[in-house]
Amino acid sequence: MDCRKFSERFGDFVEGLLSLKERRAMDEHMSQCVRCRELYTMAGGEPGDQEVVAPADLTESILSRTSGPVCASARGRLCDHVEGLLDPTGDALVSLHLRDCAECAGLSSILSSLRVDLPLLAELDPDVEFVGDVLARTRPRSRSRPAWIERFAEEWRNLIKRPRFAWEGAYVGAFLLMLIFGTSNAPLASVPQKAKEVAPQVRSSIGSVWVTTRGNVIETSSELAFDVRRRSSTVFETARETFEAARENFEAARKTLGIAREALEADRENLEAARESLGTTRESFETAREKFEADRENLEAARESLGTTRGTLETTRETLGTTRESLGTAREALEAAREALETFWESLPLMREKDDTKQPADQSGPDEGEKP
Amino acid sequence: MLDVATLVERCRQGDDLAWEALVRRFQSRVFGLAYHYMRNAEEARDVAQEIFTRIYQRLDTFEGGETFMPWMLRLARNVCIDSLRRRKARPPASSETGDETLRMAAMGPTPEDSASARSTRQLLYRAMDRMSESDREILLLKEIQGLKVEEVSNLLGIPTGTVKSRCNRARIELATRIRRLDPSYGT
Ligand SMILES: [Zn+2]
Ligand SMILES: [Zn+2]
């Protein structure tokens, strides 16, 4: 204790508000310092006065016989006391307890210091590369993506724009049709041929019996229809599968590109690694582009073959026209045959009538002869 | 100094300089929080990176009306807890973090940090190391990060009264541990 502290606490000392420890410190200082002792004497006190107080443990022993230890209660309010949240009376009560309880007073001063020191733990500096790493991970996409990725993305967007994609889809479809109908070993190549074969068969059957002709035609054409139906459903299955596969390939390519892009963005801290990743990505892009080119060539081929297929279909249609005409002729012939047959049937009763007129005349003769 | 609301607004408009400023402004706080949860500098760094990535992705969902800090701390806490769950196999052993704590305390928030401030931080870390997860978290959010009682209540989904009483208990607990470790603290 020095003189400055002594004078600071002098008022409380005189009022008897200091703790035992503090009072002793004041006394000790006065025993060494003439000026402070004089100050105290002027205030009407005698050095050593404060020594005459109750024994330090008196209160504790009383409490232990009555309410029990009160520190728990004090500690329950200590935080609010430190923050000045207690009502004046409650706050004064805690202050009084702290004056005489070194344990709680110690905790109180620690709590006060913690109010200052704990917020200092809120911030902890990471290393200097930290911000750069965060920025590399979060940079706006449009700025971090190299131009060639942008170009590819643009191309892809154009590709899937409805009309064009639909047309190219149609080319692929036509290409498939050519594969199915157009070549000699295609699954349905025999269909137009079969139609051609039916025509002469129908033509040759004109003049023969109606039932035979109809049976042949129905049998052959229903067989043909069934065949076409069966095979065309297979064709559409195959076409759909091919489209599914193509779409999956494109999806996979796009995903690969996405993963590559993420890797590219994440690996910025290491320029070497980023460059390597870029190389790999570009390679996969080149592959994708090559594939794309190949697909486009296939589409061109498909477009060309569409013409061929259309020609084949035209021929088929002509053949079917001929077949229909032949059937018409056949029907006419049959109509004529039926008419002939009907004429024949009509003439039959007349012939029978002639025979009938003779016979009844012979039988009635004797009856009439008996009556008279 | 630009206020946070302005920075956030500029970030949403796609100004990457605003984003950089925001990252610089909060990097120490986010890293500090991540460190408190992870108790390991390396993991805390990864988690802090993840937190900023998440902030970047979610900036659009931040409503101007609320305060940025609680919003950010909530998001950061979620990332930390996810990470802790993922490494659940490892126990939060206090003994193994001893050296780490000293190292982190030595790093300090500022270069001109005094030796006494450094030893204080070291003492606080050591005292908190031995506390329960829930006590530590409530101290972290309310006393260290400075969230209001209502904000902590929202964040942890517990009543404000419980936040207050739990926090006061944790502070007394911490003070008791500190006095045991270093009787000269606070005098
Ligand atoms: Zn003096
Ligand atoms: Zn006490």
Mind sketching the topology for me?
The complex is a heterodimer of chains A (372) and B (187).
Chain A: H1 3-15, H2 20-32, H3 34-42, H4 58-65, H5 71-82, H6 88-100, H7 102-117, H8 130-138, H9 141-144, H10 147-160, H11 162-182, H12 190-204, H13 210-266, H14 271-370
Chain B: H1 4-12, H2 16-38, H3 41-58, H4 68-86, H5 98-107, H6 115-129, H7 133-144, H8 149-156, H9 160-181
Helix pairs in contact in B: 1-2, 2-3, 2-4, 3-4, 5-6, 6-9, 7-9, 8-9
Bound molecules: zinc ion (ZN) (2 copies).
Residues 71, 74, 97, 101, 103-104 of chain A line the site of one zinc ion.
**With helices defined by DSSP (H or I, 4 residues minimum), what is the helix count of chain A?**
14
Quaternary state reads: heterodimer
> How many domains is the backbone of chain B divided into?
2
Write the element-wise H/E pattern of chain A from the N-terminal end onward.
Answer: HHHHHHHHHHHHHH
Instruction: Outline the low-pLDDT stretches of chain B.
Output: 93-98
Total strands of chain B = 0
Straight-line N-to-C gap of chain B: 36 Å
User: Mean pLDDT of chain A, as a whole number?
Assistant: 74
